[in-house]
Amino acid sequence: MAPLGLIAGAGSLPRIVCETARERGRAVVAVAFQPESADALEGMAAVHRCGLGQTDKVINVFKDAGVSEVVLIGKIEKVSVFQNLKFDLRAVKLMGRLLQKDDSSIMTAIINELEGEGMTVAKQTDWLPALIPQKGVLGKTAPSGAMAEEFARSMTLCRDLAGKEIGQTIIVKDGVVLAVEAVEGTDAAIRRGCELGGKGAVMIKSSRPNQDLRYDIPSVGNRTVQLLAEYGASALAVEAGGVVVIDLPAVAAYCDKHNIVLAAV
To answer: Sign (positive/negative) of CA torsion 7, 128, 265, 203?
Structure first.
């Protein structure tokens, strides 16, 4: 079988894709833009280190390896788009065609470039095990009636903001929105919101309406709940069927230990 192409961001999801591919008898050719992302995949894939603006190099890596299917997964910081990057001519043309530089526009343009070269971009869920929880309490502690109501109100708002390409995370407390994730990323939104609201804040994470499963499935994991515990947050609610929870048993156990309600709503 032809090797699987992987465009790997930060976090543990690229490693999970590699493990899944190995179980299915597929070799992996990976492109990583960040040193830590590349280091994490050594020994699991043929790793190529590329600059974020080296579109031609990325495509040539895959073409030379005979890749026909590509997975895009892992976190790539949004602020990178606005930093002083070195773009090759193909990347300059790609970015120049975009009227908007939001996540969806950029990722759709990248997918179009890959597919224009005869490659298929797979859904991330095709290469991840069952990591997306359905509706229910995921830890040992059920939310109070008031907290459940806050979950419902806030999830509706979070999905609305995500649909407008603003962000997929909000921090709330007692009906007040303390922070909305924007270009700075989830961790910064958690810190800002919890610092403003003090102990007892709640994190809400949603997908976009009509989420394109080929990129950017929202995820939470151990780092998320560790940060929430550090700031004394009281709960984490993820959208049922729409958010990946990486290593759910460990995340649930950590939430139980630190009195954080964990639920899919």
So the answer is: negative
Least confident of 44-58, 65-79, 100-114: 100-114
Which CATH superfamily includes the segment(s) 136-264? LpxI C-terminal catalytic domain (3.40.140.80)
CATH code of domain 4-127:
3.40.50.20
Give the predicted TM-score (pTM) of the model: 0.78
Instruction: Sketch the domain layout of the chain as residue ranges.
Output: 4-127, 136-264
Average pLDDT over residues 239-265: 96
Tens digits of residue pLDDT in 149-203: 999 999 999 999 999 988 899 999 999 999 999 888 899 999 999 999 999 999 9
